[in-house]
Amino acid sequence: MNAATPSSAGDVSHHLADDTLSAYSAGSLNQAMETLIACHLTVCPYCRSRANAADGIGGAMLHESEHLSMQSNANQVLTLAMSQPKFGPKMESVEPEPGIPMPLTRLLGKPLAELDWKRMAPGIKQINLSDQPRKHGAFKLLHLDPGVVLSQHSHTERELTYVVKGSYQDEIGRFKAGDIADLDDNNIHQPVVDTDEPCIALIATDSPVRFTGVVPRLLQPFVGL
C-alpha cells in the first residue's frame, strides 16, 4: 500500500510502501520492478531519501559480518536501467525527453511518439517490455485514451504502476505524472482515465492480475496481464 505524502514530497502525491523500498534495497525484486522504481526515484526526492536510508541500514548490517560488502542498490539499478536500450538501435547516448525519466528513455531507446504501439483493446495500446512468460508477471508501457475504463481487478502479489503522463483515478485515489501506485493482494481497483489527455503508464507485476468479470478473464491470455 502506498506511503503517506509528507510536505517534502513536492508534486508527487503517491509513494512507495516501506516494505517495497526494503525489498528494493535488498535487491529482492525482479528487474522490471527495480527499473520502474528507478523511474519514480528520479522524480521523487522523498522516496529517494528513503531508499538511500534503507541502503545505509542494509550496508551497516552487512558491514558487521566483515565478509560481505554492499553497494547502493538504488545506484546499481539506476545505472542498469540507463544502459543500452531494449528497443531501437543501440546508441552511445539518448537525448533526454522532457517529462520522461531517463531510465525509461534509456530502456525504450527512442521518444514515445516514435514507439510502435500495439493495440491491446479499444482505447488501449501497449509496448511489451518483457520476454518472460505471463505466469511470471508483466512489464508493459500502456497508452490509455481519455475516458478509458480498465476492467476491475485484484492481484495475487505486488503490482506497481508509474504514471509517465496524464492521470487516472480509482478506488485508491487520483494518480498523476510522477506518482506510483504500490498495490498488493489487499487491493481491488478499476482505473479510469479522468482527463481529456491520454494517460501513459508503466506497469510491473509479479504474477497475472485477477479480473473480476468473466469476459476480461477470458481475454486475459491475449492481453498479457
Structure notes:
With 225 residues, this protein is α+β, with helices and mostly antiparallel strands. It is 30% helix and 21% strand. It contains six helices and twelve strands. The strands form three sheets. The chain has a six-stranded antiparallel sheet with strand order 1-2-3-11-5-8, with helices on one face. Helix 1 (18-26) crosses helix 3, helix 2 (31-43) packs across helix 4 (73-81) and helix 4 crosses helix 5.
Q: Could you say what the CATH topology of the largest domain is called? A: Jelly Rolls
Instruction: Order the strands across the largest sheet as they lie in space.
Output: 1-2-3-11-5-8
CATH homologous superfamily placement of the largest domain: Jelly Rolls
Tell me, rounded to a whole number, the average pLDDT. 78
Number of domains: 2
Radius of gyration: 17 Å
Unreliable stretches = 58-72, 81-92, 214-225
**CATH architecture name of the largest domain:** Sandwich
Instruction: Name the quaternary structure.
Output: single chain
Helical amount among residues, as a percent range? 25-40%
Number of strands: 12
Main sheet makeup: 6 strands, antiparallel
Measured by DSSP, the beta-strand proportion falls in 15-25%
How widely separated are the two ends? 20 Å
